[in-house]
Design goal:
The protein has 3 helices and 4 strands, in the order ααββββα. By secondary structure, the chain is an alpha+beta fold. It has a 4-stranded antiparallel β-sheet with strand order 2-1-4-3. 30% of the residues are buried.
Length: 83
């Protein structure tokens, strides 16, 4: 993957905002519930344009971005270093 225009922290923040959460700890507190860190589907964000994707495998690192048509989406679990 090409060097990201956005930091992992910025991309995680974008995902948290979309989830209506304030901190990464809030996300961890969701546990196994829908959109939590132990769910089988995560939110993710694009390293190229920072758009949020809503259906990512937890360990996704090169997912397709519908906004900028590039393979640069990384899932929250990967961005947070837990997958």
């Amino acid at each position: 993957m090409a060097k990201s225009k956005y930091s992992n922290d910025t991309l995680l923040e974008n995902c948290l905002v979309e989830l209506g959460l304030e901190t990464l700890d809030d996300w961890f507190d969701l546990g196994v519930s829908e959109n939590g860190p132990l769910d089988s589907v995560h939110f993710g964000a694009c390293h190229k344009c920072a758009a949020v994707s809503y259906r990512c495998e937890p360990d996704m690192r090169n997912g397709w971005c519908e906004e900028c048509n590039s393979g640069s989406v990384e899932a929250m679990g990967s961005l947070a270093g837990v997958c």
